[in-house]
Amino acid sequence: MRILVIEDEKKTAAFLAKGLHEAGFVVDVAPDGEAGLAATRASKFDLLIVDIMLPKKDGWALVEELRDARVQTPVIFLTARDSVRDRVKGLELGADDYVVKPFAFSELLARVRSLLRRTPARRSKLRVGDLEIDTRHQRAERGGVPLNLTPKEFLLLTHLAHSVGEVVSRDEIAEHVWDIGFKTDTNVVDVVVRRLRAKVDDPFKTKLVHTIRGMGYVLKAPS
Q: Which of 4, 11, 21, 153 could form an S-S bond across to 149 if both were Cys, CB 3.0 to 4.6 Å?
């Protein structure tokens, strides 16, 4: 599943991204409200973790704008503002949960998982042609045949599926599948893509993972 963290404190954002990534999620980070809003318009996310005191557009305004636009992506406010009035305001604006800083990551992770379990089942199923990915149970199958994927292969496939039909660069893959700041001066991305292809494409006539020379990779089914 894919989570967007909208947080301007770099250390907090990096801490959240690392922890959520290690828990099996694909994580994007936006440093301010406007960037966060742009990210929600450009991609689909299963959950948003939003700070309130953000530059350019605060968390209140961001969530209010999303809800006015009928975007129902679950939202957790993560903030130092701990008054009852602030909590009530956050929930009334359409947030699904409210976590106060400082926080224990284990508690936040439990809230994330609990919230995602309450979302409709369709959020956890991704389909590209005859490929089906169950992000909730960390399983994938093609043509009804289970694919025995490693955790990294599954994260890579899920990330490609969230951007189906769009070219994903090697740098973006490295950032989302490994960690923020990952260096791509090795061929580790290409190695994992080759391993993924061996399982997703090689046994089947129709290929889904395509290389776009000089740009990256794209997951798409024949039109």
A: 153
Length of the chain: 223
Residue 119 and residue 74 in contact, taking contact as beta carbons nearer than 8 Å: yes
How far apart (Å, rounded) are the C-alpha atoms in residues 189 and 154? 13
How far apart, in Å, are the Cα atoms of 30 and each of 108, 169, 221?
A: 19, 18, 30
* Predicted confidence (pLDDT) per residue in 81-122, tens digit: 778 888 888 888 888 888 888 888 998 998 898 888 776 544
The span from the CA of 133 to the CA of 147, in Å, is 10
Q: What is the three-class DSSP state of 112?
A: helix
Query: What pLDDT is attached to residue 185?
Result: 53
Structure tokens at 83: 């008054």
- Whether the pLDDT of residue 155 is over 80: the answer is yes
The number of beta carbons lying within 10 Å of the beta carbon of residue 103 is 15
49 Cβ neighbours under 8 A, 6+ residues apart: 3, 4, 5, 6, 7, 16, 75, 76, 78, 108, 112
Please tell me whether residue 212 adopts helix, strand or coil conformation.
strand
Cα separation, 121 vs 52, in Å, equals: 29
Residues 81, 219: Cα–Cα separation, whole Å: 42
pTM attached to this predicted model: 0.60
- Of the candidates 36, 110, 24, the one whose C-alpha atom is nearest the C-alpha of residue 73 is 36
**Phi-psi sector, 20: left (phi>0), alpha (psi -120 to 50), beta:** alpha
> What does residue 86 show for φ and ψ, rounded to 5 degrees?
-65, -40
Could you give phi then psi for residue 132, rounded to 5 degrees?
-125, 130
